Amino acid sequence: MKRRQFISKGTAGMASLGIMTAVPNNLFAITNSKLVNIPIGFQTYVLREEIGKDFTGTLNKMAKLGYEYVEMCSPKGYMGSFEPLTKYSGVELKQMIDDTGMKCNSSHFQFSELKENLDDRIDFAQQLGLEHMVLAFGLNAATLDELKKNCADLNAIGEKVKDAGMITGFHNHAIEFEHKFHDKLVYDILMEELDPELVKMQYQTEVIKMGVKGSEIFNKYPGRFISAHLQDYSKTDKTKEIAIGQGISDWKDFFASAKKGGVEVVYVEMDTNPPNHFEDSITFLENL
Questions:
Q1: Where is the Xylose isomerase-like TIM barrel domain (predicted)?
Q2: Which CATH architecture has domain 35-286?
């Protein structure tokens, strides 16, 4: 039983016995002091094999673990393991997700599908009930001019997405923190070139391996983010993903500044071997 269910049932039982005065005055203050007070979801890409074979079964399994949100990958953009889902409309996929008790307000898209079939992708996103259409990758460039051109293209996409009532996001990887143009990090250039009114950021914590802290980025760019992907890495081998809370990341520091960054929801995304990573991660986050 989840803590909130226990408290609800327990206090209801005491009320029926007329002994509510036995409840400590600070009980509810204590239970509401959780650091992680935003929804916790998972990204479907790492479970793509299971999802391709049994979409609703996989979602039900994750819902039972306690995950509230699912972030999709555009079936037409990702094909492969997601190809079985292309037979469903966005409306049908939304109903399948709703039936599990989970919510889906975000999906990853490829740059090519957004540039070449934006109207169709917006229609799919609206059917699915999305709030966030996130570009998973693709702004990387060989020259500064090319990088700026890619940002201008995404701004134009973001304007149409905004007119359709949604927000465009961009999901970073390590590459944006590894490369520079004229001694300026690509990530900082992106933040200059992307219009904050049209494109928000989805922060991936993978860069903790490079010593980059989410709290530093959120404080540097307040209000520029909509969500985050969570990974953690072994203290002895930074190439090895492990459950959230068992590695090198300072999650109290991360979540203390996430709201300032504008983060509305977080998605656990990690290696599924061993399979209990997702269970251990949600347990840690729910108790942080």
A1: 61-287
A2: Alpha-Beta Barrel (3.20)
The structural domains of the chain, with segments of one domain joined by +, span 1-33, 35-286
Per-residue confidence in pLDDT tens, the chain, 288 aa: 444 444 444 444 444 444 444 444 433 333 445 788 899 999 999 999 999 999 999 999 999 999 999 999 999 999 999 999 999 999 999 999 999 999 999 999 999 999 999 999 999 999 999 999 999 999 999 999 999 999 999 999 999 999 999 999 999 999 999 999 999 999 999 999 999 999 999 999 999 999 999 999 999 999 999 999 999 999 999 889 999 999 999 999 999 999 999 999 999 998 766 668 899 999 999 999
- Asked if 154 contacts 190 with a C-beta cutoff of 8 angstroms, the reply is no
Contact at 8 Å (CB) between 207 and 245? no
Give me the residues paired with residue 69 across strands. 41, 103
DSSP state letters, 135-188: E-S----SSHHHHHHHHHHHHHHHHHHHHTT-EEEEE--THHHH-EETTEEHHH
Q: What is the separation of C-alpha 128 from the centre of its chain, rounded to a whole number of angstroms?
A: 17
241 - beta bridge partners?
A: 233
Cα-flanking dihedrals φ and ψ of residue 246, to 5°? -110, 5
Place of tokens 């993903």: 241
Contacts of 230 (CB under 8 A, 6+ apart): 205, 244, 266, 267, 268, 269, 270, 281, 285
**SS3 per-residue string spanning 178-240:** HCEECCEEHHHHHHHHCCCCCEEEEEEHHHHHHCCCHHHHHHHCCCCEEEEEECEECCCCCCC
Please, are residues 187 and 154 in contact by the beta-carbon 8 Å criterion?
Answer: no
Radius of gyration of the chain (CA): 20
What is the rounded distance in angstroms from the CA atom of residue 147 to the CA atom of residue 63?
39
pTM, full prediction: 0.87
